[in-house]
Structure formats: C-alpha cells, structure tokens
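Friendly challenge for the regulars: who can give me the structure tokens for this chain first? No prize, just bragging rights.
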Amino acid sequence: MIMSEEIKALLTASGGEKMKRTLFSISLVLILLILVSTAASAGQYEKIGSGSEPAVDAGRIVWVDNGTIHVYDLTTKEETEILSSSASHPAISGNKLVWCDKSTGVPRLTVYDISNGARSYITADVDNGSIPAISGDRVVWSADSTVYMRDISTSTQIKIAAGDNPDIYDNRISYESYSGDDTPQIYIYDINTRTAIDVSQYGDNMFSHIYGDNVIWSDFYNRLGNIRMYDTATGKQIEVTTGDGMTGYDTGGPADISGNKILYLKHNELADLNSGYLYIYDMDTEKSEQLTNSYTAQTPVISGNVIVWSDSGSIYMLDY
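First reply, four minutes later:
Bragging rights claimed.
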C-alpha cells in the first residue's frame, strides 16, 4: 500500500498510531472483499433441475430426464416440459430443438420449434448411435460412420463424409474420421466450398466441438487425452492442456467452446473419462481455472457466460 506525503505526516503526528491502525483495518477489509468477490465469481453455481445431457443457447438450457425434454428459460427462470417419452441427446440453436427419439422403436431425430410447438422428423440415415448437433436451420449427425446434414428450412439432406460425432457452427462442420493407420483425425468441412481439411494431422483424436474459427478436440495418443485447438483463421494448432510422461494428459473427453472460453473436465483415471473436475480455459490469458470441487461433473456445455453441466442426476448452472 503506497501512502501519500500527507498521510505519512499524519502518521507521525499526534494520534498517528491510531490512524495507522485504522488504515490497516481498512486495507484488511478491502483485501477480504476482493477475495470474497473473486471466489464468488468462479464458485457460485445453482441447481436448476434434475436430469442429464444438458445443452445451452440463446438464453435457454435444455436437458433430458427419464426420456422427457426440459427447457429452462434464463430470463424468466421458468422450466417447461416438452411432450416426449424416449428422448436423448438434445441440442438447441435459437428457437430450434433437436433430439434423438426412439419412442416408436425405430430411431429418428425430432426437430421442435419452441416458438410454435411444431414438430418434424428426420428418419433417413439415422441409427441408434445418432447424436445431433444444430446451428440455425442445419442439423448434423452420424450414422454407420457417415456424417449427414439436413437443412430443415428446405427439407434437403446430404451426405457430408465418412466420419462420426459431428458438430456444426454456421457454415462449418467438424467431425472425426479414421486415417490410414486406424487413428481418428479431426476434419473441418466447409459447407460453401464443399471441401474438408485435416486439422489434427496426428494423434488419436475424438470429441470435436467448433465455434467461430476455432475447433477443439481431445487427443488420446498420450494416455488420458489432452485438449487441442486449431484456429482456421491462422492455421495454427495449440495445446490447451499438457502433461508429462508419468502423469499423462488428464483432461478426458467431454469439452465445449464458446467465444474465447474452453470448458473441459480434468480427471485422474482411465476408468471414467467422462467425469472429473470442471475447468475453464481463457484463450486471451492462456490460463485455466478450476470451477468445481466435485469430481463427478459430466457433460459440460457453454454459451457466452453461461456454463451448464450434469452431476449425479442434477443439472447445474454457473453465470461466469
């Protein structure tokens, strides 16, 4: 604490010791307030429902509980249910929802418009392992190790490439596809140019997510998987998390990206790659921060400042 000459003079004058104690007390209070504020910004989260597999976008959080879709409005703090009986893996973009639907015994994707309650179904090229992602009016998924895309505004559907686990943002699709040595690589497909590039080029890569110019994924070539990112604007790849030969990379599979933030799980064992401590990485500072003290966090997702995850059958939210 730097003091001005006037304050120094007061401290040496009559009553200086009393003033010194007062200034010390004020400084201590300020430090405590800063510490409390810092802890609150990263550690205060709330349970908003029961279930699993959350997704978040445009002021809404969606998840599934016992086959039923739940939607939570961040503005009104109200939760509503959408009639469904065998739903899983919901995704949301604006007013559009899509999820896996096995209520008829035959796998299909249900597309739901929140604004008017209209439903439509994608039935062609869908199998039991199809997990959808959505951006605007475009839905992507994989079936039989092939990536498909459907434009729900025009009801047109096309095959993108051989691959699995696609994600989509605007006019780009990321997915994993096996190379000649039987290790999955991460590709980005440009919908406008209809071309794909390998952005990982080595490793054993899975679980890609894309936002803007950046795609992230988990590389399992060295033990437990570390998070990597490729910037399509610069053509550069970076390691978000690292480890060493003894402890390995210990960040698991599930991760998500929004803006300049990357959300991921940090775990300690191969037995469960899908659970761990929740961390957030800031691209600007190149630093990670731990968000939860529970080792059982799962399926983290992020949109803007809103972070959502599941933990032991509950859905939690943090406004970061």
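The longest helix spans residues 16-43. The helical segments are 5-12, 16-43. Your move, everyone else.
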